[in-house]
Write a structure and sequence with these properties.
By secondary structure, the chain is mainly alpha-helical. 80% of the residues lie in helices and 0% in strands. It contains 10 helices and no strands. The protein has helices spanning 3-6, 11-20, 23-43, 46-66, 71-86, 92-114, 122-139, 145-164, 170-190, 199-225. The longest helix has 27 residues, at 199-225. The radius of gyration is 20 Å and the shape is globular. 35% of the residues are buried.
Length: 227
Amino acid sequence: MSATASRPTDPGRATAPRAERFARPLLIAFLLAAAVDLAGLLAGLDTVHLVAKPLLMPLLAGYAFFRGGPRLLIAALLFGWGGDVFLLADSDLAFLLGMGSFAVGHVCYLTLFGRDRAPAALATGIAYVLVLAVFLVLIWSDLPAELRVPVAGYSLLLTAMAWRAGVLGRYAAAGGALFLLSDALIATGIAEWPRLPAPDFWVMLTYIAAQLLLALGALGAARADRP
């Protein structure tokens, strides 16, 4: 018997590379779907957006799964997918359902970040609270009355997630900040404030980047924790 044949095989080491073979194609598919979606928004092709947007989070969740990502990360991405689908419909009920789905995703993120016992930066937290308070004061009177309390509650949860994301490093911290920016752009649209040209493009660009950076930050932290 040769030395190679007599050496025992570690099942974990054998299985992980096989699973990760699927990860790269899924990441490439996610990036392609993102590019198609953003190009469709710039071109004003609503049908392209309707087809491409629902593909984004399942592809990113699949990538996270085959990279051995935490279940809470995958759950957060899939609840983000639910929010994406609901927000494709133009109604107050769909908006509230979408916001609720995203809120559950933020709870998943917060629970995941809470597993890291490192303290989040206090100065960053104070800055986030100040920005949130000023933003809500400015936008409050322009929001529809029935959406004011849900938007305020959701914004508080999102701000907590963005702040706590910093415990997983720079990628996750940037992802949390971009998520906050993306939803702020949505809120300004609801309040009928002046908006950038092609506003949906900027909303989706910041959102896609946010979810990708949060996923990369969580995957990097999970890999670092493995023996």
